[in-house]
Amino acid sequence: MTDKSNPRVSQSLDSAASGLGLARWAGNFAPGTISGSVYAVPAANRIHAARLLTGHGHRVHVDLIVAADGTHTGVTPEQLLLMRQAVPDARFDVHLILPSTDMNGPARSASETAIRAAGSVNAEFFALAPRLLHDLIDDLEDLRTKEVPIWAEVAIGDDLTGLRRADGALVMLIESGTKNVADRSQLRKVVRLAGTTPVGIDGGVTAAVAAEGLLAGADVIISGRALFELADRK
Question: CB 3.0–4.6 Å: which of 4, 71, 98, 170 could bond 127 by disulfide?
């Protein structure tokens, strides 16, 4: 387990930060609408990214990606807790991404750790695939007791039937965990949901896609690579 009290550990997630910035287009949106995916930046920059987003009135989006063997291959729960410690005012939303196969012991254990971490940082929502709403029902109910809404991921090709037990919807414009170009046709689902349930969009979101998502009625717009600017990318 990561030692959160060790300043060297915290610094390892906040180094080389001077080259990180935010794209200007994010300033065109109301505070709290844009959520920056810190998975898009190197681990060494994630605390700075959370601090930068919070300072500009944006949210911090955290992808907790669990492999079949239980390994965390995205942002880790420990990193999430360190970001909360370093940026107390941050508004976090969390997305749990698991393999499509049935969960085994290690994957389930890693998922439970992710859920506890989301509760510890008072996440503004916790999103996951609809099939997991049943598999992790007890842990998710514990999360709800902490007033963390549970959102269902709406993947490419999914209809909206998986939302019956969810408090909101995260409409994916690409397949989770990939770097594809956003499928704008998915925004039709946002139009159908807007006004009836909280809804966000995620995946391949550029300035143009963000504007279209807002017009479609999205409450939260998640962006990663198109939002963060690195000096070496310039």
Answer: 170
